[in-house]
Amino acid sequence: MLITGALLIYATVDMPDWGDANSPANTHVSPRYLEKTIEETATPNAVTSVLGDYRSYDTLGETTVIFTAGVVCMLLLRRSQK
Amino acid sequence: MDTFEFIIGKYNYWVYIILMMIGFFAMIAKKNLAKKLVGMNIFQTAIILFFVSTGSKSGATIPIIEHGHGEAAHHAVTVAHYINPLPHVLMLTAIVVMVSTFGVALALLIILYRKYGTLEEDEIFDAIESARQEK
Amino acid sequence: MHVALEEVTEVISRFEDVIIQTICRLLIPPIQLFALYVIAHGHHSPGGGFQGGCILAASFILLVIAYDLQEMKRRMSEKVNIIFCSLGVIIYSGIGLLCMLLGSNYLDYGILHTILPVEPAEARSLGILGIEIGVGIAVMAVMVSIFLNIASGGEHEEAEEFKE
């Protein structure tokens, strides 16, 4: 466990600072989402518009995951009355 | 000083890595299955927090465009004023996956308890071994 | 006057029961209203489908904790719960199929402006609202179903640990 922790801390040397506005995660495609969310979707909430419109296929898979978990719980634990 | 700025810039990652290692330790070193499950939950929560912290910008506000409705709806948006919405979106999915795996794992624990009467890992292994040797 | 300790503790535990049940009876309708508010205002404030669905499920679980398991089964039976599970996913895929039938790609809500009297940008906003409603219903039903199955261990008719 200590070796894994030391390796992970060594890996954070290269990562961008906290709160950096020019890191690669903040400048790839999210400025486009933030700028175009009002004129294309009329939704001020950028998180909902990305979740429901630009990446709605992932949300479909998400709903399928939680539906499958509900069905599995039902299958594992329900016993037919003898 | 340079090292001081280095520590200020990175210490959030270190805190989350320490949280991850606590959960990892609970997963591999405890013998009770329920404690291993709690360790898995801690591990997943720490990963979610780690990802959300990579999307923050200093001095920025939540990613809901202000004055976004009505007559002033079409003015330029300064991107540096709002934090990155993309990690939040991905972590919403991750939270739901966390809840699903926790629910299925609890159902499996109930079935194991019904069959073997205990939740300790080595007692379950012994019971499986003796049941196999009887055949 | 000598009152036995067992009688006093029994009276206190029954009194605590009344307090919890009254407070839960007062709190559960505002909690459900707040959950519907969070789902419906996903466009303008933090929230959306998943968050509102979890709060709605929490109100039902509060009913189980305060009262009996059978009390909650009387409000929402197992059959209605299973129907709600699939209804959420059907609403989601149904909107996507509707967009495909109208001629555009799957889950491309811009094409909905041909049947609704709004602009294409507003049609996307309404499509997102419909999707969040579907997700909220599905998440609520699945969370209540998982809780019922795990808490009663499968035997729904004889749930001993919640009977008083």
The interface involving the most residues is between: A-B, 47 and 55 residues
- Percent of residues of chain B in beta strands? under 5%
Number of domains of chain C: 1
How does the overall form of chain C come out from the CA principal axes? elongated
Classify the secondary structure makeup of chain C into a structural class. Answer: mainly alpha
Distance between the termini of chain B: 70 Å
Radius of gyration of chain B: 23 Å
Give the helix level of chain C as a range of percent. Answer: over 70%
Number of E-type strands of chain B: 0
Give the biggest beta sheet of chain C. Answer: none
Mean pLDDT of chain B: 83
Q: Give the number of helices of chain B.
A: 4
Write down the secondary-structure element order of chain B: HHHH
Low-confidence stretches of chain C: 159-164
Describe this structure in words.
The complex is a heterotrimer of chains A (82), B (135) and C (164). Chain A has helices at residues 2-11, 24-27, 30-41, 46-54, 56-77. Chain A is mainly alpha-helical and 82 residues long. Chain A has one domain (25-82). In chain A, helix 3 packs across helix 4 and helix 4 packs across helix 5 (56-77). The termini of chain A are far apart. Chain B has one domain (2-58, 84-133): Orthogonal Bundle (Helix Hairpins). Helix content of chain B is 69%, strand content 0%. In chain B, helix 1 runs antiparallel to helix 2 (33-53) and helix 2 packs antiparallel against helix 3 (86-116). The mean pLDDT of chain B is 83. Chain C is an all-alpha fold. Chain C is elongated. Chain C has one domain. Chain C starts with a helix and ends in a 12-residue tail after the last helix. Chain C is built from 5 helices and no strands. In chain C, helix 1 (5-40) runs antiparallel to helix 2 (49-66) and helix 2 runs parallel beside helix 5. The interface between A and B is large, with 47 and 55 residues.
What's the short version?
Chain B has four helices and no strands. Chain B has 135 residues and is mainly α. Chain B has a single domain, classed as Helix Hairpins (Orthogonal Bundle).
Topology summary:
The complex is a heterotrimer of chains A (82), B (135) and C (164).
Chain A: H1 2-11, H2 24-27, H3 30-41, H4 46-54, H5 56-77
Helix pairs in contact in A: 3-4, 4-5
Chain B: H1 2-29, H2 33-53, H3 86-116, H4 121-133
Chain C: H1 5-40, H2 49-66, H3 69-75, H4 78-101, H5 120-152
Helix pairs in contact in C: 1-2, 2-3, 2-5, 4-5
